[in-house]
Specification:
By secondary structure, the protein is mainly α. Helix content is about 65%, strand content about 0%. It is elongated and about 90 Å long.
Length: about 130
Amino acid sequence: MANRVPGSGSQTKTGALILGGLALAAAGFAGRYALRYGRVAQEAIRKQMDALPNSAAFANSKYYKGGFDAKISRREAGLVLGVSPAASKAKIKEAHRRIMSLNHPDRGGSPYIASKINEAKDYLESGKP
């Protein structure tokens, strides 16, 4: 008589059939759920998408739209520091200190932005036209 290996033969086939049946039942329940609640979810998603702001909502934003000029101007330096181009040296220094404390590279800020802030301060303090 040959030695039988446990888990071979008809027991394995039966287990595979049971697992296959359970997988089909799960797929059926998932499909039923998707058909029932899919339309409700689709309507909720559509409402949320319609509620998102569009580009017209940003038209009156207080933030400057556009990149940096190749060569800084008084207007751009004032925009970078958030002061008038004709501001006093004390206001320029205070604005520079405030903005650099938020944008310093050692505190996670961008080195490029920090260099632009420094460039704006230097330009306004130099008094160039």
